[in-house]
Design brief:
The chain is an alpha/beta fold. The chain is built from 6 helices and 14 strands. About 20% of the residues lie in helices and about 35% in strands. It is elongated, with a radius of gyration of 19 Å.
Length: about 260
């Protein structure tokens, strides 16, 4: 059955005309899917759907999103991010190629908020995946999200009574007052690459932006899936962070602010 798919020119250029035509004809496209942006169900037979191609250094994964959430596009990510964050139902999404749909994948959810530490409000980002993150190259159950981050230099936190140390080489990219990406060092001294990149620039509050510009750094906290949740208020976010820290489920660092 033909699908209501949007395949951009840049996606078509990467996957080839034959594969793009098969997708449009419904041969390789799923009917139902979880939107890679908002994580709610979609149906490519009933509503306009964007093809989103995530490309690492060696691996490419095709995902799907509501056209109202994201345009069809190619997103460059690090190989570690792609292999660690994307899982197929069989648990082996690391080997998925450009024509292989991944019906189930974990993506990094990011929430911004102000966190009071030592009597001063600090701009913070809280990262929580939508599913377990497995170590690249492994299969099966388990969640290696925190160990992978600790290996990158993130610090385990048992309480939020002081500012975590700066993770050198990493930075938070703010442009035109909007959050664009968290950058990590490139391999072999190359230009920084996106560890996390917003599909669309994220709005932050004026208070968050003012604090970030004042301190010129942002605190980044990370916790496994289910530890924090989407908290509607900053006091509830702080309570969730404190609970995750007490349970040994929180890591954090400070990162320099890039941009304004």
């Amino acid at each position: 059955m033909p699908r209501m798919l949007d395949v951009s020119d840049e996606v078509r250029a990467e996957i080839g005309d034959d594969e793009a035509d098969r997708l449009l004809a419904g041969d390789n496209a799923p009917g139902s899917y979880d939107c890679t942006s908002c994580r709610t169900p979609g149906d490519s037979a009933q509503e306009r759907t964007s093809t989103v191609l995530f490309i690492g250094e060696e691996t490419a994964v095709l995902a799907f999103a509501h056209a109202t959430c994201l345009p069809s596009q190619v997103v460059q990510v690090t190989e570690e991010q792609l292999r660690g964050a994307v899982k197929s139902i069989s648990g082996d999404g690391a080997d998925a190629g450009p024509g292989q749909a991944v019906p189930e994948q974990a993506v990094l959810g990011v929430t911004s908020g102000l966190v009071l530490i030592g009597g001063e409000l600090h701009p913070a980002l809280v990262v929580e995946p939508t599913g377990p993150i497995v170590r690249p190259g492994t299969t099966g159950a388990g969640d290696d999200f925190l160990p992978l981050l600790i290996e990158q230099g993130f610090m385990p936190l048992t309480q939020l009574n002081e500012v975590p140390p700066v993770l050198h080489g990493w930075s938070v990219l703010l442009a035109m007052g909007q959050l664009h990406a968290v950058l990590q060092p490139g391999s072999n001294g190359t230009q920084p690459v996106a560890w996390w990149q917003a599909h669309q620039p994220l709005q932050v509050t004026e208070g968050w932006r003012t604090a970030a510009n004042k301190l010129r750094q942002v605190l980044l906290f990370a916790a496994p899936v289910g530890s924090i949740g989407r908290q509607p208020r900053e006091d509830l976010l702080r309570d969730a962070l404190d609970k995750a820290a007490a349970n040994g489920q929180l890591v954090g660092v400070a990162m320099p602010l890039a941009g304004t």
